[in-house]
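User: Structure please.
Assistant: Input sequence and predicted structure:
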Amino acid sequence: MSSAHLDQYRAFAKYNSRFNRQIYDLVAQLPAEQRTRDAGAFFGSIEGTLSHILVADRIWMGRFAKSGHDFPALEEADLEYGIQSLAQPAAPDFAGLQAQRIAMDQLIAAWVEDLTDEILAAPMRYQNLAGQPREHATWIAVSHLFNHQTHHRGQVTTLLKQAGVDPGVTDFLVFALA
């Protein structure tokens, strides 16, 4: 790994935070029924998909916190270790979900500052939700964290479009060159 990867992850953290704010601001304008209606996405509704992203981020940040590397940003973080389902609600309502998303984005932004080339190259060991052991380079998990958000936010933008809401520009390239 090279410091270019560190720069990339830091840029992804900023992009995700900005894009999450953009999406949540749009979703907040929808009636609750429209946010929570099952639209046939992997996690049902717009809100269900946003909740899934947050739950998965909590899982991954918990795995990073337990990885044996020094992550000062994660020392006091409220992370999840007993999640049973990737579809479980992350918050009791949309306002709580939005507040927790903001907090998670701040945590991720601080955490990427703790990453080093050595950490990215080091092996990461954990168990998946099925209890199966996994091991791979840490950079793979970091890349997955950001890719996972992008994947499911893409589903949310499709659901917004179907609801008649323009999600605006979503490309990382546009963000990076702005």
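The helical segments are 3-28, 32-36, 46-65, 94-114, 117-121, 138-162, 172-177.
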